[in-house]
Amino acid sequence: MTTQRTARAFQLAARPHGFPTADLFTVEESPVPEPAPGTAVVENVYLSVDPYHRELMDEGGWELGVPLEGRAIGRVTASRAPGLTEGDLVFHRAGWRTHAVVTPGEGGVRTVPSYDGVPLAAHLSILGGTGLTAYVALTRTLEFRAGQDLFVSAAAGGVGTAVARIARLLGAGRLIGSAGTPEKVARLTGELGFDAAFDYHDGPVGELLAKAAPDGIDAYVDNVGGDHLEGAISVLRDHGRIAWVGAISQYHSAHEPPAAPRNLFDIVGKSLRLEGVLVRDYGYAQAELEALLVPHLQSGLIAPDVTVVDGFDRTVDGFFGMLRGENTGKMLIKIAD
């Protein structure tokens, strides 16, 4: 049984205008729930805060006054669900709270496999939705091949670092990344295997990318949109491909129409392909991802890239830090041992 008697959950009290503020969130307390037939109660260990959560804060996303949604891993403390027993670790989407009621098979609920030498945090980063997004962007959307040259925007973030790790395993040619600080740029080339990287504050992205990739690129994983997408279109070779994962550049301006790249029609002139990536469409590829990565995690060839904030009360701080780019790799909140 759980050692806590009170469950806590973050709720959204109002919609943001621009960058969100702490007063938009409230914490509601209630007794730890009891499982109904077919369900189990989990006490969360790790919570994931993600860029798409900023979009969910706007109209049409999260409901006001109800517990928020997010990926999480929790330990079963009480179960009336076949296949789940006390002590099992479970992946689910009822994050932003200390306790959740889950139903096996619903909402992506699944037990977390135990691999010797693989830390639990990996299952919310490179083995979780973040890594799966990177994997399907490369293998499905881009149909990435060994020797091809790749540009990754927001390359020091969760998806960006996972793309780099997986692209190297797939035999990438030149790997180019953008980031928001000189320290992150140095880490991209010094630790994460990028051949070139630049700070997008140092000038027009198209010019910086052209300098970093003078012979062009074959493919682009876009986590930013805006000027990064415009720059990538200008540097992509004919028949290049774009996997559009996110649009960080416009997350805080939902009430303003985003500016389209000025060279959008070059997609036609260069016979480029642009396709959006939604990880929820690719759950079937999870086993492939684990088969590829687990041996390399166990050997130490690759490691989960994570920034961990300790404490449930600091969940919003971690969320804001992620939105400001203070993390390297995936931002996680650790709320229990």
UniProtKB/TrEMBL annotation:
Keyword hit for RNA-binding: no
Span of domain Enoyl reductase (ER):
18-333
Q: Where is the signal peptide?
A: none
Q: What is its EC number?
A: 1.-.-.-
Q: Which UniProt keywords apply?
A: Oxidoreductase
Which enzyme type, at the first EC level?
oxidoreductase
GO MF, one term, reads: oxidoreductase activity
Q: What is this protein called?
A: NADP-dependent oxidoreductase
Q: Which organism is it from?
A: Streptomyces caviscabies
